Automatic annotation (TrEMBL):
<dbReference type="InterPro" id="IPR002182">
    <property type="entry name" value="NB-ARC"/>
</dbReference>
<feature type="domain" description="Disease resistance protein winged helix">
    <location>
        <begin position="80"/>
        <end position="150"/>
    </location>
</feature>
<dbReference type="InterPro" id="IPR001611">
    <property type="entry name" value="Leu-rich_rpt"/>
</dbReference>
<feature type="domain" description="NB-ARC">
    <location>
        <begin position="514"/>
        <end position="619"/>
    </location>
</feature>
<comment type="similarity">
    <text>Belongs to the disease resistance NB-LRR family.</text>
</comment>
<keyword id="KW-0611">Plant defense</keyword>
<dbReference type="GO" id="GO:0006952">
    <property type="term" value="P:defense response"/>
</dbReference>
<dbReference type="GO" id="GO:0043531">
    <property type="term" value="F:ADP binding"/>
</dbReference>
<dbReference type="InterPro" id="IPR032675">
    <property type="entry name" value="LRR_dom_sf"/>
</dbReference>
<keyword id="KW-0677">Repeat</keyword>
<dbReference type="InterPro" id="IPR027417">
    <property type="entry name" value="P-loop_NTPase"/>
</dbReference>
<dbReference type="Pfam" id="PF00931">
    <property type="entry name" value="NB-ARC"/>
</dbReference>
<dbReference type="Pfam" id="PF23559">
    <property type="entry name" value="WHD_DRP"/>
</dbReference>
<dbReference type="InterPro" id="IPR058922">
    <property type="entry name" value="WHD_DRP"/>
</dbReference>
<dbReference type="Pfam" id="PF13855">
    <property type="entry name" value="LRR_8"/>
</dbReference>
<dbReference type="InterPro" id="IPR050905">
    <property type="entry name" value="Plant_NBS-LRR"/>
</dbReference>
<protein>
    <submittedName>
        <fullName>Uncharacterized protein</fullName>
    </submittedName>
</protein>
Length: 619
């Protein structure tokens, strides 16, 4: 029996173990390696008793064959979440960065790239399952048996305590907090207090304490007295009103997460936390920046999106020269930043904030032009001025833009701006969010410099070419979201979200299909543009004849006869036509593409199918 079959047999016919072992051995064609794997599996299983233990050993085979030590740590970390938990990809990578599993000497984008590489490795080895979460975001899950295997490892070395999502009402007993414990996860429970008789007394190696999502109201002073190595403290989404002064004892703390602590109104002095790199105070109720923040010069990530915050002390930001991520609440008019305070932040990559006026914004842009680094993501708020966003330096590198509360802005960018620039604005942009812009009437404004309303100017081909999401809310003057001539650039657009835009009539500009057809012909981006009118009286054979005529099928085209045969011929011809656009105009009801002979469009071959319709039930 071939070695491969013996390996499958050694997996006891269990689909999960077969998949995981296969993922580990994927791409390996050396028979000796397979024989060695078979011998290793037999040896592992021979050392344990019981079906459950055997399954764990088979799955551990994949874990032990991870060559990257970082990947092993990243995988084991996934156990801190509750069973069957949907772990958002971005959040998980952030956690890996916080834990130090990913080298943090580069840019934040580089760190995220390394995190994605590790995720891919774990997915390829079938240790994590790639999913889309219930909120529509990219994420991962651990199979129950894989999680059991990982927990069996963390019960030994490295030592974890994981009681996440178990509806616990109190801390684990003091005896469970052994001196060699490195990480403790009690997230998403019902713990309300920390009685003195259960507080741990010997946690000399503890580096991570996760209490997120518990309704605890107070942290006792003594909790942090015996945790000299603690580096990550997550108290997010708890009901705490303050932190004890003993937080200053955590000399090795690098990450303090208080996100969503809506009862938190004050913090003690943080000046002793000299190693702190990340501070998240999103949606707390603090009114003042914590005392001593100007001493935390290693900070790289600050989230101060706090509606109640009254001011930013002058001179604070220029001292935090290592910041890569900085967020303020753009709706909080009390926090209006000055460009001179931002200028020293050369490493800033992600920024959310508000400038007092256009003058301060222009100074900020000027400082960006002098910087070797550039923002890749920003959300900005302003007074009542229009910001010429196309003029921002290196705008082709921006991935996410949010525009909030600008009373005077009428468009995101004008076509005359394209004409005066050799660059391709927004060519890397993936997410565009527009909120509460009462005078905004166009995404791209066509003006006198680009011709009359009957002409169809072209934006640079790369502009918006990577755009995936558009969100527009409370833009009361917007009537048409996307001009029809921008359509060829939007091949990657996946989601459009519109809310409370009372004047919005059209998502796609109501140009006639003839205009769209002519525009596509002028652009010469497709080898063939086929335009067919469907109309109310839909007839399969008529549509087939019209498409065949556009393809100039004559001798081989059966004018009458079996519709299935005609559909097969048409489908074959369309597949071999090359890069083309097929416009089905004025569709009144659902059309079976297969019945007509229209193959499903594939992004890989560059072909497009466009339908114009009067009914939302067609698509």
């Amino acid at each position: 029996m071939p070695t491969l079959k013996l390996v499958v047999k050694e997996c006891a016919g269990l689909p999960l173990t077969i998949v995981v072992v296969a993922g580990t051995m994927k791409g390996e064609d050396n028979p000796l390696v397979w024989k060695n794997a078979l011998g290793e599996l037999k040896e592992r299983i021979g050392k344990v008793e019981g079906v459950e233990a055997e399954v764990i050993e088979r799955l551990k085979f994949s874990f032990d064959h991870l060559k990257d030590k970082q990947a092993k740590h990243c995988f084991l970390y996934c156990t801190v979440y509750p069973e069957d938990f949907e772990i958002e990809m971005d959040e998980l990578i952030e956690c890996w960065i916080e834990e130090g599993f990913i080298d943090d000497t580069g840019t934040r984008q580089e760190m995220k790239g390394k995190g994605l590489t590790i995720l891919k490795k774990l997915e390829d080895n079938c240790l994590l399952e790639n999913i889309i979460t219930k909120l529509g975001r990219f994420g991962v899950k651990m199979h129950d048996a894989v999680r059991d295997m990982a927990l069996s490892i963390t019960s030994m070395n490295p030592r974890y305590i994981v009681h996440a999502g178990l509806q616990l009402k109190e801390l684990p007993k003091r005896g469970q907090w052994s001196p060699d414990i490195e990480k403790v996860s009690l997230m998403h429970n019902s713990i309300t207090e920390f009685p003195a008789d259960v507080l741990p007394t010997k946690c000399q190696l503890l580096t991570t304490l996760l209490l997120r999502g518990n309704p605890v109201k107070a942290i006792p002073y003594s909790l942090f007295m015996n945790m000299p190595c603690l580096s990550v403290l997550n108290l997010s989404f708890t009901k705490i009103e303050s932190l004890p002064n003993s937080i200053s004892e955590l000399k090795n703390l690098t990450t303090l997460l208080l996100r969503g602590c809506e009862e938190l109104r004050g913090l003690p002095c943080l000046s002793m936390l000299q190693e702190l790199k990340k501070l998240d105070l999103f949606r707390t109720k603090i009114e003042e920046v914590p005392e001593g923040m100007d001493m935390l010069i290693k900070l790289r990530y600050i989230d101060l999106e706090v509606p109640t915050l009254k001011q930013i002390p002058a001179g604070l930001l220029p001292k935090l020269v290592h910041l890569q991520h900085l967020s303020f609440d753009v709706n909080n008019e009390k926090i209006s930043l000055k460009a001179e305070e931002m200028e020293p932040l050369k490493k800033l990559e992600c920024f959310t904030g508000r400038f007092k006026d256009i003058s301060e914004f222009n100074k900020f842009i000027s400082s960006m032009q002098q910087s070797k680094k550039s923002l890749i993501k920003y959300y900005l708020g302003l007074g009542s001025d229009l910001i010429p966003m196309f003029k921002t330096p290196k705008i082709d590198k921006i991935v996410t833009i949010g525009v909030h509360n600008w009373e005077g802005i009428e468009c995101v960018v004008s076509l005359s701006s394209f004409a005066s620039s050799s660059a391709h604005p927004f060519q890397s942009l993936e997410v565009l969010a527009l909120f509460n812009l009462p005078k905004l009437n166009a995404l791209i404004m066509k003006d006198a410099e680009t011709g009359s309303a009957t002409t169809s100017p072209l934006a640079p081909s790369a502009t918006f070419s990577h755009l995936k999401e558009i969100t527009i809310e409370r833009c009361s003057s917007m009537k048409t979201l996307l001009p029809h001539w921008l359509l060829p650039n939007l091949q990657n657009l996946e989601e459009i979200s519109v809310d409370s835009c009372d004047e919005l009539v059209e998502i796609l500009g109501a140009a006639t299909s003839e205009h769209i057809h002519n525009d596509l012909l002028k652009q010469q981006r497709f080898e063939r543009v086929i335009w067919v009118t469907i109309s109310k009286e839909f007839n399969v054979m008529k549509v087939q004849d019209d498409i065949a005529g556009a393809l100039k099928l004559k001798e081989d085209w059966p004018r009458e006869g079996d519709m299935l045969r005609r559909a097969a011929i048409l489908s074959k011809m369309l597949k071999n036509t090359g890069k083309h656009v097929l416009i089905l105009d004025d569709v009144w009801d659902k059309v079976s593409l297969e019945e007509v002979g229209i193959p499903e469009p594939s992004g890989s071959n560059g072909c497009k199918l466009m339908l114009t319709t009067r009914s939302e039930h067609v698509c």
